[in-house]
Amino acid sequence: MKARELMSAQPACCTPDDSIQEAARLMRDGDCGCVPVVENKRDNRLLGVITDRDIACRCTAEGKGPETPVSHTMSQNPKCCGPDDDVEVVERIMAAEQVRRVPVVDARGCCVGIIAQADLAVNERAASDSEVGRVVERISEPAHAPGPARGGNGR
User: Fold this and answer.
1) d(CA 152, CA 72)
2) Angle (nearest 5°) at CA 49 between 43 and 51
């Protein structure tokens, strides 16, 4: 199965200049825990991602307010896959990077979708139960380097 068959296409995106509050609203309205951060909403060139965990650990826990720019809290340069990559590539990225979501970018680096761990779990053609279990186990291992330098565990 290819990434394009599994991804949520055209996810809501924010820019580095948007506020944390706007990113949180996008998460609420889209019922998701991760929003791609793009250079601008016209091209959707991916710069990073912001997660609910980033907001909790890098913003709220540090005493930063809702008007804090996304650029101060986002995780930069996330590992991505292409729309024609096999699902096994997505699984390897999730396990190696200990992330629960993988952006899907086209040849120009523009965000065209996102794949969540749940997408693997609910699509029986994507991965077997044992494969999903192995990915979840690897994602959930304690991080080797704590804190924001690694981007944090749980993205």
Assistant:
1) 15
2) 140
Which of 104, 98, 94 has its CA nearest to residue 7?
A: 104
Helix, strand and coil percent figures for the chain, each rounded to 5:
40, 20, 40
- Averaged pLDDT score across all residues of the chain: 85
Q: Return the structure tokens found at 131.
A: 């494969």
Strand order in the sheet with 8-9: 8-9, 111-116, 101-105
34 pLDDT higher than 70: yes
Q: What residues are paired with 86 via a beta bridge?
A: 2
Q: Determine the Cα–Cα distance for residues 152 and 85; give it in Å rounded to an integer.
A: 25
d(CA 126, CA 81): 15
Closest CA to 126 of 2, 31, 28, 27: 2
pLDDT above 80 (res 57): yes
Average pLDDT over residues 62-83: 95
Pair 130, 75: CB distance under 8 Å: no
Structure tokens at 8: 């949520």
Give this prediction's pTM: 0.80
Structure tokens at 148: 């924001």
